[in-house]
Amino acid sequence: MRERHEFHVDSARYLDDHGKPMDDLPALAGDTGRVLAAYRNMVLTRTFDAKVIALQRTGKCGTYPSVLGHEVIGTAIGQSMAKTDVFVPYYRDQAAHMLRGVGLREMLLYWGGDERGSANWKNCPEDLPISVPIATQCCHAVGVASAMRIRGEERAVVCCVGDGGTSKGDFLESINLAGAWHLPVVFVAINNHWAISTPRSLQTGAETIAQKAISAGLPGHMVDGNDYFAISEALDTALERARGGKGATLIEAVTYRLGDHTTADDATRYRTAEDLKRAWGKDGIKRLQNWLHDNDLWDAAKEKALQADSKATVEQAVEDYLAIEAEPPTAMVDYLFETLPPALQTQRERIVSKYRGGES
Amino acid sequence: MRERHEFHVDSARYLDDHGKPMDDLPALAGDTGRVLAAYRNMVLTRTFDAKVIALQRTGKCGTYPSVLGHEVIGTAIGQSMAKTDVFVPYYRDQAAHMLRGVGLREMLLYWGGDERGSANWKNCPEDLPISVPIATQCCHAVGVASAMRIRGEERAVVCCVGDGGTSKGDFLESINLAGAWHLPVVFVAINNHWAISTPRSLQTGAETIAQKAISAGLPGHMVDGNDYFAISEALDTALERARGGKGATLIEAVTYRLGDHTTADDATRYRTAEDLKRAWGKDGIKRLQNWLHDNDLWDAAKEKALQADSKATVEQAVEDYLAIEAEPPTAMVDYLFETLPPALQTQRERIVSKYRGGES
Amino acid sequence: MSKGELRDVTLVEAVNMALHWEMQHDENVVVLGEDIATNGGVFRATVGLKEKFGFKRVMDTPLAETLIAGTSVGMATQGLKPVAEFQFMGFIYAGIEQIVSHAARMRNRTRGRLHCPIVYRAPFGGGIHAPEHHSESTEALFAHIPGLRVVIPSSPQRAYGLLLAAIRNPDPVIFLEPKRIYRAVTQSVENNGEALPLDTCFTLREGDDVTLITWGASVTETLQAADKLSHQGVTCEVIDVATISPLDRETLLCSVAKTGRAVIVHEACRNGGVGAEIAASIAESAFLDLQAPVVRVTGYDTVMPYYRNEAAYLPQVEDIVEAVEQVIAL
Amino acid sequence: MSKGELRDVTLVEAVNMALHWEMQHDENVVVLGEDIATNGGVFRATVGLKEKFGFKRVMDTPLAETLIAGTSVGMATQGLKPVAEFQFMGFIYAGIEQIVSHAARMRNRTRGRLHCPIVYRAPFGGGIHAPEHHSESTEALFAHIPGLRVVIPSSPQRAYGLLLAAIRNPDPVIFLEPKRIYRAVTQSVENNGEALPLDTCFTLREGDDVTLITWGASVTETLQAADKLSHQGVTCEVIDVATISPLDRETLLCSVAKTGRAVIVHEACRNGGVGAEIAASIAESAFLDLQAPVVRVTGYDTVMPYYRNEAAYLPQVEDIVEAVEQVIAL
Ligand SMILES: Cc1ncc(C[n+]2csc(CCOP(=O)(O)OP(=O)(O)O)c2C)c(N)n1
Ligand SMILES: Cc1ncc(C[n+]2csc(CCOP(=O)(O)OP(=O)(O)O)c2C)c(N)n1
Ligand SMILES: [Mg+2]
Ligand SMILES: [Mg+2]
């Protein structure tokens, strides 16, 4: 006697590579304000990104992971989330951070080697800081979502993880808990085809990342991560579901990492120029720009103004960032515990005496 | 534009709860020698199990996990595996160990608190010892399978894990590697409905354990773990596939833990007598016995002889086990490294002097 | 705090009592782990909590230690105070990345914006005739990690007071419960919600000739050794370190300044054990006070043997006596 | 061994050279990790191996450290000799359960039937201006685990010889590579397949006044301090411990017997660092030789700061000089 248990994941896409609709667009496309705001954020993100890379090249910033190719996904996340939701990012979520209200200056501080980059997040004080150990943030996301469930709140969590990260136990254990406990969390697995030099194909034998949801009893969706409408619709739906107590969702957002892994990497070692060129042909910012043009919502003058605005915003942030002095070395012990334990007092005194009053 | 990616897992069963065929049996049912040998092993296992519990109750053995309810699965594993395959067990695989040729005395030594229980496995010297930290053995299984793949051998690995264990990262990361690398390994997830007191329903939101295979791009099968024919057929197929270089399989073998979790547990705290009674109604040994009777392959006299034989075998093993003196305390340092490092020499001397020549 | 009911309890019952008290008085306290709700924990430490506070606050998790450790971090950032149980210390390892890289650092990383008031509980130590991995005492691994507190009670009263303090502490605490003495003795504990300090060693017995420094289940053998030695006219000061990290060096150094001699006793293996830090600190800071080298009585540098030989591994009363005699002779 | 080609190489190149040699001469050696095959490793330690030995023996794994650690165990039981890379020591933690509970115990557990000839490599230590978690030096965690060897080279020659020894060793070795000095200097290394011993410290410089004990990248500052001090007429014996565990106490004690003074320098935080074990061992066994307390110059007991302040955390030449002046004064 045989029975068959069937499962599926859907994939969705609205815009072709040139920004032409392939299908009826979702309702959100009618919200011109939202779409324009999204576009502006994507451009600002890309402008910022180029600047940070330049700072790094001139020794004014540390190792930095470019967001190139992720701008659409992050923007959609930032827009779909409510202020009261909690964002649990990974390290390539600059576009979302902009909309969550993390200062550009803070982002610069962080990558500039200053802990204060994760400190003063006054617009999103509950959001988690960047998590460097891959996929570990997924456990935090289900913890935050558990707290919401325990307290009966109508809020949700969005957690990002890379395609590489979906191989790590933390992600897999976490989606399982999300399914077992019906937690209000949306996992966004950003499949940019690479984990440093490791291609998506070596990461897993699964045909899609979205189908990992099935192992946890969750709905899984695959969306074109360069299609603003597709990703936004998937996020809106999943977040509504989560806030309404209907449980978690895994969204695989497919894109391509257009830059090196970080400024310390050289991607030409492991991928071809043709691959990269093909990926640029699917760029989500260009696609949305085309769509805006086609719908008379955008023109060259507006583009020029936006570029200038974005540059000015970024320049101001860089100026602010460069003006900030390093913390005194005593900061390295002062935030470890709520109150400095007696055992650390002598060490703190040594720091003070070594650095004349704790100045660096 | 939407697409749908479809997946499935099959479930299989041949015998009803009373041992009556519900379907045409697989070919292996015609191999009378194999079926009878299987039945004998199941009975021996159950006899052994009852004896170890009795030893534990009288202080002659340590904490012990009863195999009650797992005899059919373990027996099928032991039979389907070739001598050259490698078994990576968990701690409730006594039935398979019997057929792999691990001595009953060795099993007693192990649970009797003596490392030598994992030492002298002359019939299966490459099999891994029992792994106590849940699911950690899954990583070893893919490592062993990788070695086989690297060397181009036509061998395979069978790895057991409990339903609880399928929540742990080690299992999930390992099935993913098995899929990514097309490894010759068969994972048997033994769903006995409980992980100590935690029911299967709290372990995961997934409807089946078998569907976890989908996350790794592996075929997943669910079989009735009390149906000797179903589980044996699934194992034969999966092992053939593995040895033939066609990759890994996940088999969920569904049964019920008929005993306490271990002798240190009291299952009446968390499950009802009715549940247990219902599970006994599906007992796989009784089922196979009925089928053998129905096919004139078994009778009361044979049963009586088998019971007597099994008891005698077990009694002999117990006698051998009880006759073995503890290792000298120096054994605790002598096997740590291939050669005792100078740093441990002084400590070894202390042991020797404390225990007069290292005797305990 | 008001006067509370007096109860004769074992160490594990004191743990349970503290959990009840704090869950009752602080709705942010939640408890999670494997088999801790319906089953009340394999050692019964959490028994009764689910009945009283419900499944929302008393959570049986899937079998996944990374998750237990990391989910607690997420909960804590939301202002909950998770008390997470690892069923045995031997199974805490999969949680280490989350504990070391996140729980211990969240406050520092965010300059105080978020913090992790988590208690990670685990029964630890050998001597209960359990299978492999059920006898670990690797407290040294956690003591070396900045941002963590490591606390080990060794009596019902200290279990009660230290666990309350650990839960109330705004930073993560590794709380290790010596399971060999979970039910060894009962002690009268006042259920009054009074916490003990988290940065002070406990002097269990005063003496002039030698300072015996220990913690966990070894406190039992150390006190017995002190008793024996007193019949030989040697008076031992016995200190239960209890708050392993950050370490109260003050109390230890004061005692050694008086006695001039120290013997450290712990169950963990010697190489790189917490005893090394204590010995190094004393030898550095009390150099001129010391009449004899600081000696360590510890487990051997090997894996805890299976149970037929576990007694041969554990430090015994006579080992302690011998060590004291040795340092006294100098 | 035959005479080999002489090459001027950096520490990381020496690692690469040793891997090439041993893969060439022993077909059981395999290499695995994240980005180690096609990319040749993020630090280029494994560059060229894939081209030479193919994907079967040089394996890019999925991003999963538990798996990397545990798969190596399985491979090793089949007689392979896996050399597994953790991309940074800060990401080794998810592998700890597999390392502690299996790699370190398989031989003991099976009484020698199976064993684990694995090398777990990881770049470690701070000072390269990297993001959080890229500057860990938690060698003490592994040094405390029975059944593991912990080895840390601090020069190209020692990297070459010790890595060969580690791969050939039939038991698991944690091999930590001080990335701050990965490319700091070049040294002439003979590519002759000759291994160095795994249980001996290396005396880098002889002296009579004080013994400086160190390892890893701190060897650089320690030698500089010794230089400075020699101008003040203080001669320092400088020992690179290199084989952190099991520890060669003999060499250390002999030196201290001569100098009567010891200063230990390491980058890891002080509390429970390997320096504690060394200090405790010296203070115990060389009690009568010591003219001054054993002093430790270490990182602070806190999380390594992000890079703007990392220099303030790392032990500097002047800290070492100051410590020596302090012990010499006594
Ligand atoms: C646990 C862990 N292992 C290794 C690393 C080193 N590392 C940093 S990013 C990265 C690749 C991540 O790839 P993916 O998850 O796909 O994210 P992406 O960078 O492509 O956005 C690796 C291996 C790390 N940060 N954490
Ligand atoms: C990593 C780890 N965590 C916890 C335990 C304690 N423990 C032993 S068995 C068990 C339940 C396992 O359940 P399952 O995997 O379903 O196997 P079963 O015992 O039901 O056969 C637990 C939690 C352990 N051995 N290892
Ligand atoms: Mg990626
Ligand atoms: Mg089970």
Tell me what the structure shows.
With 360 residues, chain A is α/β, with parallel strands linked by helices. Chain A folds into two domains: 10-327, Rossmann fold (3-Layer(aba) Sandwich), CATH 3.40.50; 328-360, no CATH class. Chain A has 14 helices and eight strands. A six-stranded parallel β-sheet of chain A has the order 1-7-8-4-3-2, sandwiched between helices. In chain A, strands 5-6 form a two-stranded antiparallel sheet. In chain A, helix 1 (32-57) packs across helix 2 (71-80), helix 1 (32-57) packs antiparallel against helix 11 and helix 5 (136-151) runs parallel beside helix 6 (169-180). Chain A is globular. The mean pLDDT of chain A is 97. Chain C is α/β, with parallel strands linked by helices and 330 residues long. Chain C folds into two domains: 5-191, Thiamin diphosphate (ThDP)-binding fold, Pyr/PP domains (Rossmann fold); 202-329, Rossmann fold, CATH 3.40.50. Helices cover 37% and strands 21% of the residues of chain C. Chain C has helices at 11-25, 49-57, 65-77, 96-103, 106-109, 139-143, 156-168, 218-231, 249-259, 274-285, 310-313, 317-329, and strands spanning 5-9, 29-33, 58-60, 81-85, 119-124, 149-151, 173-178, 187-191, 202-205, 210-214, 236-240, 243-245, 262-269, 295-299. In chain C, the strands form three sheets. A seven-stranded mixed β-sheet of chain C has the order 3-2-4-5-7-6-12, with helices on both faces. A five-stranded mixed β-sheet of chain C has the order 9-11-10-13-14, with helices on both faces. In chain C, helix 8 links the parallel strand 10 (210-214) and strand 11 (236-240). The termini of chain C are far apart. Classes of the chains: A alpha/beta (360), C alpha/beta (330). Strand 1 (2-12) of chain A pairs antiparallel with strand 1 (2-12) of chain B, so a sheet runs across the interface. One thiamine diphosphate sits between chains A (92, 132-134, 162-165, 190, 192, 194-196, 257, 261) and D (34, 63, 65, 87, 91).
